[in-house]
Write a structure and sequence with these properties.
The complex is a heterodimer. By secondary structure, chain A is mostly helical. Chain A has one domain. In chain A, 67% of the residues lie in helices and 3% in strands. Chain A has a two-stranded antiparallel sheet with strand order 1-2. In chain B, strands 1-2 form a two-stranded antiparallel ribbon. Chain B contains 17 helices and two strands. The longest helix of chain B has 34 residues. By secondary structure, chain B is an all-alpha fold. Chain B has one domain: Up-down Bundle (Formate dehydrogenase/DMSO reductase fold), CATH 1.20.1630. At the A-B interface, α10, α11, β1 and β2 of A face α9, α10, α11, β1 and β2 of B. β2 of chain A pairs antiparallel with β2 of chain B.
Chain lengths: 461, 457
Amino acid sequence: MAEHAHAGHVAPEITARQTIEDATRRVVSTGAKFATLDIALGVLGAIGLIALVLNLIIEGTGNREAWGYTAIVAGYLMSSVLSAPILAVLLRLTRSDWRRPLSRIAEIQAAAGIVVYILYLPLFFAIPEAEGRFTVWVEWPWGAPGFFSAVVLGLLVFGGYALLYISAIPDFAIVRDRSHDNLPRFERYSRLARGWYGNLRQWSVHRAGLGVLGGAYLILYIWTVSLFFWDFGLSLVPSWRSSVFPGFAAMSSLQTGLALIIVTMYALQRWGGLQDYLTWDYFWSISKLLLTTSLLWFYLWFSEFMIYWYGRKPDEINVLELVMFDVYGLPMLLTFLLNFALPLFILMWNRVRKTIGGPTLVACLVLVGTFIDRLRIFGAAWGVENPFAHEMEADNIPDFLVPSVLDILIVIGSLAAAAFCVRMALRIVPLPSIWEVSGGIGLRVRRQYLNHPVTVIAKPE
Amino acid sequence: MQERVIMSDQEINNELLRSVFEHPLRFWVGAGVLGIFAAMWLISLSWLIYWGVGVTGLNRPVYWGFLITNFVFWVGISHAGTMISSILRLTQAEWRRPVVRAAEVMTVFSLGTAALFPLIHTGRPWRAVYWVFPYDFMRDVFPNVRSPLIWDPSAIFTYLTGSALFVYTALIPDLAVIRDRSTGLRRTIYGALALGWTGNTRQWKLQGIAGVLISALILPVFVSVHSIVSWDFAVSIVPIWHATVFAPYFVVGAVHSGVSAVLTLMAGMRWFFKWEKFIRPEHFDAVGRLLIVIATVWLYFFFLDFVFAIAAEETRELAVMERRVFEWPYWFLLVEIIILGYLIPVGMWLKRSVRRNIKLMFWSSLLVNVAMWSERYWLIVPGIERKYELKFSWSFYNPQLVELGLVVGSFGIVVFLLLMFSKLFPPIVLWEEKEGQRFAANVKIGQAVVPAIVKEE
């Protein structure tokens, strides 16, 4: 555990100069410290890609069951890596002071967006056409849902990269200005910095651009998750007409994104040299959000369960048998424990929230829980034999979707590939965000108030 | 940007206790006008009880009309108090200070008013006793405890009790200030209410702990109240009611209308009591920004509810949706809900200059509540007008004058009660304002002096 890992400890004063030194060190001299890890992740990612291609050759896109686990891991990564940047967007919109060392960690997860897109490519062809099914594309003439899903997801992935890039431009300029002794690096970062000199107009455009792009990403993400969880999950199960489900998917994704950020924060704090930046109070602040999203997770889940269970319509009870009680009963129970019950009972204690280990433990539980939840949702959906049936009959409840060897390789390879992309981005993009952290330094002062030292935060906006 | 006016404790007491100790003409005029509305409500109620529910527009198969719509609306408004006080207190939002008490008190009065409407709706309110006790001991006819109609009063009365406790706990230090400024009987009464408050360290610590505890404990109640109200509808299999999104959709809608009502109240208090130093444009700006988010989430759930109703392409759902979208007056209500509930107000609130314009904020918040009342009606009535497998007839609902009197009168009653409260207690929390003064600071950055806030830990 790092030296600043307990509540009440005031972190050492960080200067702007120190922030620049720390953030640029990683991109200036990557070294061989994590080379083994990077190679292992790269190899596993390549194996996953080969397994994906083999699955396409062997099974084609006609056999939906063969793509169930690809849908599970694609849905999982969409819920984690693509939702993480939302935290940066939300905290910027609300002008939270504690966002500063966290925002880049949130944005950099979007680097794995390409993995999500590659995973969805075969699914766009494997998903049955919209006509005759219960989908948002009511009697849409052409291309639904595959084509439109491909366009929407492409926009989202591009938006994630754009957000990361635009946010990092001022920091690229700093690396450029410190690379005069290394011409290739100077040229590379000059291109990335796009003539940034930090004049007032550039800052004004930068702020406006981040605001607009962030808002657009937030809205696009909510709609994309809603659409994908409907099209690639819910709509394939006859009688699963739960209007709260897209909202549940969005909330669950937000919870997973937060968990991913916390785990990344822990890794960077423990092994990445950011122990002076990621102190316990940042874990404390973000853990409150994690607790809130866990409560909302339960609320939205219960809203669905309550209506189906109480309504007692036979087809709805059959859906419950599939996704909550019988076939996927154990995954449901595990999800309930990992995404709600344990986070609640661990994070309800302020003393636990004020540690680094407590929120990290809960974040790990949530990440595992969400994977199991995606197994429940997409496993149930892609195991259905006839998605065009109007009602779920008791005789037609599908069995648990058992993974093949290729499925296992695709899942492991995809997770490794996502981690590999983030690792590669860390070699290019300075971390933490220099302009945000150093900008915040001047706005925080410690003062004596009666007998207590307090933090005073300036609010210039 | 903070626009705080630096004031001493004495000045804050003097300013905020004016409503209690002074008796301006406008108070009596306001009380008189609102009293007329309250009288209208009482006359309508008497008429209904004397003649029975036959004087309303309710008839087979539409048994839920204006009165239940109004009940749902006022329960929704009551969500403002917890949203503003509890959530903003827990998140330490500095701008909560001048609006917390007004929001909490509005919760109590609107919830009390809401609770009256199901009773009135029975036509014979005294029969409500059967909700609690068996209909008939001899024949073992008991209320169905598994019905949301039984959970409803439990949730509402728990919320009412919690909210009243919330108001009272925060009121204690202010009651002591009034006590110390009073003489005679008034001093005795406020002294008793202040529970021996002297403002020592231990009392303040307990007060702080109580505030945080009640805030945290009331949150689940807050969510459950409107969820249960929504389940009155959603657990049935009435077309368009049987939707899993109803609970969060109702809660978010409630917060949307409740916080908008707080905005209306803020503008009203600022104008009526001339509290420009306390309720400032920065507060309207902050509430406006919060409302943009709430309204957008509400629109998202509205969209989900709407699309899922038509995407299933079930005959009975489509029949009701067709009526709600294309037939008078429902098509008009739908357009009104979207335009007044989202497009116009959110379009306005996106501009900072509008968010800081008190008059525009007042009118835009009123628009939201016109839309939200209509939305409740649009959600409730069309589904039961139509025939489906468990009903043998269909018909239209035409609200009658007596129902209109009760609905309009209820607005008069709530505002009248708020005005009466302001006569007895300060509608802005004295100690919150003083604490805010102490938390305000300035930080010098370069040549500029920037307003700053002490971080609460």
